[in-house]
Amino acid sequence: MPQTYEQIKQSCLRSGRLYEDPDFEAVDDNVFTSRRPPRPFVWRRPTEMVEDPILVDDGASRMDVAQGRLGDCWFLAGIASLTQYPGLFKRVCPTDDQGFGKKDYCGAFHFCFWQGGEWVDVVVDDRLPTINNQLIFVHSKSRNEFWSALMEKAYAKMCGSYEALKGGQTSEAMEDFTGGMTESFDLGSKAPKDLFKVMLKAHNRQSLMGCSINAKPNQIEAKLDNGLVMGHAYTVTGVRKVNARTRSGQMEVELVRIRNPWGNEREWTGAWGDKSSEWSLLSDREKKEMDLTFDDDGEFWMSYRDFISNFQRLEICMLSPDVNIEDAKVTWAADVHKDRWRVGSTAGGCRNNPNTFHKNPQFRVTLHDVDDDDDDDSCTLIVSLMQVGRRKLRKKLGANSNLTIGFAIYKLEEDDLKAARLDKDYFLYHASSARSNTFINAREITNRFKLKPGSYCIVPSTFDANEEGDFLVRLFSEKEKKSDVQDEQTRITRNVKPRVTAGEDANMDSKYRSFFERVAGKDEQVDAYELKKVLEAAFSK
């Protein structure tokens, strides 16, 4: 059994030796797995790089971190969101029991990430890859501060390598730092009419937000004339309404504050940017309340209208009720179910596979109370289907290791509730009441629904049948609900003593072999449901 951080720490302090992680060694293979670096890395501890290293210098800030030579801006955007909430940050990066002081320093550090429905403590040593005595990946702007570089190393260990962090959605990092659930919105002409209201409410509830501009492969991190960068992950760090004084009188303006994880002068140059004349329209008092700074730090303001016109995607990570932290104001009720698709058993594929779709795992949810501010007597239900552990498979399967996933929702009538599971015939003759907006080869797909009170069956699936993988189904609602796995229990109901008369053995063997072959097909193999048919036929006589 792996040692805990505290066990490692005490052992190192007693022996006087600095920790060296046997499970994530300081070798180039743990950086890049598909290619060799242009020059070898030199692995150094912070104590070998500076005289007085510090884990966190005067509190973590979104301004602390800068991106290095790895394409993990999505990870940095998640870090920047995390640092805005000290309680959340301290859960991921404990500061009370580790540091570089004589009492704590042992060459080991630990970080806590949410993975597959549970919090995982990841321990690493503090040897970091460098070139010319400089950190080459994520680092703090202060040369003496090392929490961001060590956090990235712990996350890389969890995912299998530093290279495994190349390319991703900000939602992955935000969820792995909070255990929350992310909802994505298309912007531009597809943006919901009330999206600014949604963003304002999300910011007030301490939700984490990220945004990005779509790009083709040859446009990744291409710089636009307006200062923005394509194919690059940004953090939304503020949402606010301000009163601007114009010639025609007071005017309310909706603003969004955004940060580029590069942390440099690459900022928005349009209206309400750092050098914009629009700031003269605000009173000194309002500018002071906004804590305005106009440094080349990667952070800038822009109007909401410009925001939805220039960015194409927004991700909002809602915190789950188990985040018991002083700065997290959670209002969602959440249920989590863990399951898996198994070849030959529960990997039924999507509705294009009518003979096997019913074999997928099924989850029943009952919605009782309508939303408080709803006008049409309906309930908000946010459904998330998340694949578990796929990034770790990149060494074996390549960069795109995700399965193509989606889900369907069926309204259950009173008679449907009597069955432990919905069978093949049900799905052949009933259409879904709602479904995911697409099937996608991403880690997670999340959609929001407005449903009438009642009971529903949610069926998650891969697009193709017979694809195996672990997954989570998470259900968020404004009101309490009841949900469970919709399945038959495996149990022995009674003692069975078949009575066989003399001379009957051969006839029975021939009869049931013929039935078995009809059910099993040419491969003479049966899955769990086909086996059930064979056994029912055998014991019904």
Automatic annotation (TrEMBL):
UniProt cross-references to PROSITE patterns, sorted A to Z: CALPAIN_CAT (PS50203), THIOL_PROTEASE_CYS (PS00139)
Active site per the UniProt annotation: 73, 232, 260
Sample GO molecular function, one term: calcium-dependent cysteine-type endopeptidase activity
Single GO biological process annotation from the record: proteolysis
Keywords from the UniProt entry: Calcium, Hydrolase, Metal-binding, Protease, Repeat, Thiol protease
GO CC, one annotated term: cytoplasm
Pfam families linked: Calpain_III (PF01067), Peptidase_C2 (PF00648)
InterPro entries linked to this entry: C2_III (IPR033883), Calpain_cysteine_protease (IPR022684), Calpain_domain_III (IPR022682), Calpain_III (IPR022683), Calpain_III_sf (IPR036213), Papain-like_cys_pep_sf (IPR038765), Pept_cys_AS (IPR000169), Peptidase_C2_calpain_cat (IPR001300)
Family: Belongs to the peptidase C2 family.
Full protein name: Calpain-A-like isoform X2
Lineage summary: Eukaryota, Metazoa, Cnidaria, Anthozoa, Octocorallia
